[in-house]
């Protein structure tokens, strides 16, 4: 089902009714057309709809105006507001979260490194050092300190190192500590959360693509 009026188009989908609002007219014209269609019962008995503003980004007060018109005056709920565009603040946050942050240095004991997105360290992470990232952590060197990837809830992130012998690894809310006794580290490994057991496990680096095939897929890691 598709119904087109002057400034809005209504489409019936498997998820319900989506109302597409024209993105070229003024906001006042949109409200007037919405009011006209509601008065003519064009959206009669549509108890919950999605509102898609296409290439227009609504301010909070504009969303409130539409919500007041649909919900308060005509008892039509709004599932969500959707758009083809995002704000500058959202774009900056998205970019910051997905950008790889390189460091050519050794993170020494007592030092702490915190970043949004992925961290790529060309150097060592010494015992007593702490690295925290909202994304994954890659160490081209010896990892012997503390690393927290996927902070606070990125369960699909990983920790990879040329030499893996950390004192502690966290991924999202899962924790893995080094044993109390002395152990040798291992070459070219990565840590990840096994989705079946919800526990942190280690595997050879050459299996990273198989276990986390979407690790570098921006569409899978976006907002």
Automatic annotation (TrEMBL):
It holds the Pfam family MinC_C. Coiled coil: none annotated. The keyword Cell division applies. The keyword Lyase does not apply. Belongs to the MinC family. Residues 9-81 form the Septum site-determining protein MinC N-terminal domain. InterPro entries: CAP/MinC_C (IPR016098), MinC (IPR013033), MinC_C_sf (IPR036145), MinC_N_1 (IPR055219), Septum_form_inhib_MinC_C (IPR005526). Keywords: Cell cycle, Cell division, Septation. Signal peptide: none annotated. Residues 105-201 form the Septum formation inhibitor MinC C-terminal domain. This is Probable septum site-determining protein MinC. Interacts with MinD and FtsZ. Cell division inhibitor that blocks the formation of polar Z ring septums. Rapidly oscillates between the poles of the cell to destabilize FtsZ filaments that have formed before they mature into polar Z rings. Prevents FtsZ polymerization. The gene is minC. It comes from the Bacteria. It comes from Alkalibacillus salilacus.
